[in-house]
Amino acid sequence: MNSASRRSSIADNVRTVLDGLPDGVELVAAAKTRSPEEIKEAVAAGVRIIGENYVQEAEEAKACIGGVRWHFIGHLQKNKVKKAVQLFDMIETVDSIGLAEEISKRCVQLAKEMSVLIEVNSGKEEQKFGVFPGDVPELVRKISCFPGVKIMGIMTMGPFSNDPEVSRPYFKCARRVFEEISASSVPGVEMKLLSMGMTNSYRVAIEEGANLVRIGTKIFGERDHGGN
Ligand SMILES: *Cc1c(COP(=O)(O)O)cnc(C)c1O
Predict the structure, then answer these.
(1) Is 138 strand, coil or helix?
(2) Distance CA 131, CA 133 (A)
(3) Where are the chain's structural domains?
(4) What's the mean pLDDT when you consider all of the chain?
(5) Which of 28, 198, 202, 218 best tests ligand 1's pocket when mutated (most atoms within 8 Å of CB)?
(6) What is the CATH code of the structural domain delimited by 3-220?
(7) Which of 22, 81, 23, 68 shows the shortest CA–CA distance to 42?
(8) Longest CA span, the chain
C-alpha cells in the first residue's frame, strides 16, 4: 500500500467505525506501534480517545497530538507508574493491590485523581493479566479506600479467537462482574464504563453491554509486528 492510500484509509476507517457505534458507546483507538502521524490522522477524523500499551510510545505521541484523552491499555509495570500518571487520563488495566497502591502514591504526590478500570481475566487464563472474576469485589473494596484513585468500571480482553462468538461468554462474565460491583454500591466507586471488544469482537461486546470499545486494526490496518 502506498502512503497516500494508507493515509486516506485511516480517516475513512475511523468514520466507518464511528458511524457504526450506537449512542453511548465510545471509541478508544488502540494505537500501539502506530506513528504519531497515523494517530493524528485518526484524531482529525474524529477519534477522541487514544489507547496506548506503552508509556514511551504515549510520551512521543502526546508531544505532537493535543485535544484528546489518553487511556493506558497495556500491562503497567510499577516502575512506569510515575510517568504513566503524568501522561494518562485513565488506566484501564489495574489488576492488583500493589499496582493500585503505586498509582495512589504517585497521584497523591501530584494532587491528581486517576480514573481506573479493573481488568478482569474473564477467561481465567493463567498466562493473562487481570484479576479473576471472583476476586474483583474484594479488590474493588480495598482499592476504593486509596486516595488519588477512582474506580470507574471494568475492562476485559477475554481469550483471543478469530470467531467473535467465542468471546461472548467472556463478555457476559465481565458484564456480570460489572453489574455485581454496581449493585454493591461501594462508596467512592462509580461504575460507568465497561471496556471490552476489539476489531474482531466489538460488535458482540456492544451487544453484551460494552460502552467503551478498543479498536486498532480496523482503524490503522494490520500491525507489522503483531503488537500484543
Ligand atoms: C491492541 C489492543 C486492542 C486492539 O486490538 P485490534 O485487534 O487491533 O483492534 C485492544 N485492546 C488492547 C488491550 C490491545 O492491546
Answers:
(1) helix
(2) 6
(3) 3-220
(4) 94
(5) 198
(6) 3.20.20.10
(7) 68
(8) 53
